[in-house]
Amino acid sequence: MEEKMIPQNIEAEQSVLGAMLIDDRAVAAVAARLKPEDFYRISHQAIYRAMLALHEKNTPVDLVTVVNELKEEGKGQRGVWQRGRQPGPDAAGGRSGGKKGADGSPVDGLQ
To answer: pTM of the full predicted structure?
Structure first.
């Protein structure tokens, strides 16, 4: 029996997350419609959760604050990026599964 694949659109997920980084008003609009589980990629779910947490704290949602929030949650470099790694472009536009540094951390993508 053939296993069915869950419908997904990685580019759409990236666009939503990107829009939220560009415009704080988009965070409230998206939060009213999507749950973290609506994202297919584990890394996108983590990024979205971080954005929601920042929004709830009335902290600006930008690349720096999102990365810091992920690090505080323990999902930065060695968290979700390593455990939940999936091939293909990541939300930051880099390639996941790419080169690793001497300590095993990713050289490309979100760091």
So the answer is: 0.66
Q: What letter would DSSP give residue 63?
A: H
The residue behind tokens 């973290």 is 36
What is the residue extent of each domain of the chain? 11-96
> 3-class DSSP state for residue 31?
helix
Q: Which residues contact 98 (CB under 8 A, 6 or more apart)?
A: 106, 107, 108, 109
Which CATH number applies to 11-96?
A: 1.10.860.10
CA dist 68 and 87 (Å) reads 24
pLDDT for 65 beyond 60:
yes
Both structure tokens of 22: 């560009």
